[in-house]
Amino acid sequence: MSPFSLDFLSTKRSNVQSFLQSVTPVISSKSLPKSNMDDQNSVWNSNGDGYFTLRDLWDYYEEWSAYGVGAPIYLKDDNESVIQYYAPYLSAIQIYTVKSASSLIRNSSSGDHDVDFEMESWSDASENSEKLSRTISNNSISTDSCFELDASRDRLGYLYFQYSETCSPFWRIPFSDKILEFTQHYPGLTTLKSTELSAASWMAVAWYPIYHVPMKGITKNVSASFLTYHTLSSTFQDVAEEKSDGERKGEGGIRLSPFGLAAYKMQNDVWLNTHTPKDYEKLCDLQNAADSWLKQLSYSHHDFNFFTAHSNMEHGAASNLVVTDYGAEVLSVNLSSLRMIN
Description:
6-stranded antiparallel β-sheet, two-stranded antiparallel sheet
């Protein structure tokens, strides 16, 4: 169950909870063919048989990328509500598959889908201020011996694609445009199913404020920026779909609720219910959950490092933090269990 679907911060919904609920994608669930259900890797199989394709996920962000997404914000000092609009940008992503390239290509040849897998190598993020440079060894590989030689050693699965944004927010292109750019060279970014992704697959979305309505009469600064972390595998699908009233999946689609969070220029008296310390504690837990996830993957996330360096929340209080509900389920998939992939 997602912590954002509960009385997560207090009995009265806080503005940060309103934001998180507003930016949580809800994707239509597709039924997995029965012939494929028995073929799923038992380690990564979800509790249900629904799935989505990565194209379904990217399509959900298309309108948000064009117009922004509005989050209702209540300002108690002004006794007024505003709608703060945010634009999404792809901050980081790692796509790991549960099977090797050759296995998925064989599946596609039997009519599953057309996947043209490619290989890549990435430079250190610090070497390029705009984006990680990539080298494509083969545009289309007919054999996967080179790919599998390295990937089989990886306890996380088979790395298909990864990216970390490092340029200034002023120079970034919208989420959907960035994805479109990548799909020109990595067609699996549209055809892969959530059931084909290992539990180590994730993405981080940077949310930058663009405007709020009404524009006048607001005495508080509501222009905070956020990073939200989402898992992409069906391993966590059931957890993400559960609702606050106990309702299970099947109504409203698959919810990819964030399991981690980082904030920049967030005024606590605006975004949190300051009458209870649990609000602040939960936000710290979410930041530490993202930190723990990145450490388990040995991944240096440029935006996370920047956000936390300028954050007023505690950072790294626990090296192996177990947070409540959905975050706990994510972090419980530790590196020892991920070794079972092979």
